[in-house]
Hints:
Layout: E1 2-6, H1 13-23, E2 29-32, E3 48-50, E4 64-69, E5 72-77, H2 89-98, E6 102-104, E7 112-116, E8 119-123, E9 140-146, E10 150-157, E11 162-171
Parallel strand pairs: 1-2, 2-3, 5-6, 6-8
Antiparallel strand pairs: 1-9, 4-5, 7-8, 9-10, 10-11
Amino acid sequence: MKALFVSDNHGDRAILQKIAARFSNEVDIMLHCGDSNLEPSDPVMQPFKTVIGNTDWGLDYPQSRLAVADQERILVVHGHLYQVNFTLTPLMLLAKEQRATIAAYGHTHQLAVEFNQGTLYLNPGSISQPRGQYQNIGGTLAIVTADSNKLDVQYYDRRMQPINDLHFVFLRQ
Length: 173
């Protein structure tokens, strides 16, 4: 299973078009962690399974989404309702309740990845307005390749190039 995660484009339609054009034939599913600021009816949003973010005022996206791809149960939230700026505990509790193998979130505009008790927690970072340690990259997205033995996480920049220093492999137990 191969899944693409993007978040926080904040109205930047062009980058989502580029992402879909580049990766739609290479991944099984494309997920958006919120703050798209684009209508669900906008054609650029059609390839993405999307959740609502804190700046998606009046848009009709769900607060959370559970997608199933192959054997993976992928939980997607924006994060603002789960205190991700301070802790992952509320998200971890929801992921456990949903039996998620991958839990993705946005909101912080900072990429993050960790593997905890059989679940991968992933923030793809903001593709358009990055913050924090990696903001000089200019925006990131993540692709997760999962099989029964491992979860492989590769971050990409806005030019759709893999970032060598941001490649992680987590072995399943």
